[in-house]
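#structure-requests
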Amino acid sequence: MMRAALLLLMLCCGALDAARAADAPTPSPVKASPLLGKRNSNQPINVASDKFIADANAKTGTWVGNAVVTQGDMRMRADSVRVDVIGNDNRPDKIVANGHVVVDSPVSGTVTGDAGIYNVAAHTVTMTGKVVLTNSKGATMRGTPLVVNLETGMATLGGRSSATLPGQPESQNNGRVQGVFTPTGGN
């Protein structure tokens, strides 16, 4: 059993390298997404946490306790992160984050939620729960789910928010997308 766990650990680590190497001959251009800033999906994905659990049968690796995932200048933190791998070359298929999920991008701001899924092949990120987006200029939006296509930069935020804006009672939520924007400039 320990040997299988070590094999899966090596597969997960190798899968991240394999995904990067498989795309290396034709690196995708750096995309500018309004929500996530400039990013290159071929950059290495690094994962760290307090503990690692391998499941060779399910082909998953789970990082538990203060999990941090970085790719380029983007950083995601969560209570736990699971990486699912597929195929004979063990390419990462999905990265599933649970508990106090925070995604930071220095260019565009922060997204928080209860859970998140990075679908590596589809280049999409889905955040659920109490989703809050805050940009570097202080604008805030709330709703759920948030679905971002990393290739096109298109994003959709649903209106089933369970979070309210500061200073507003819970009853004003009404299941709608909420936003607060501060005008800049002068008269």
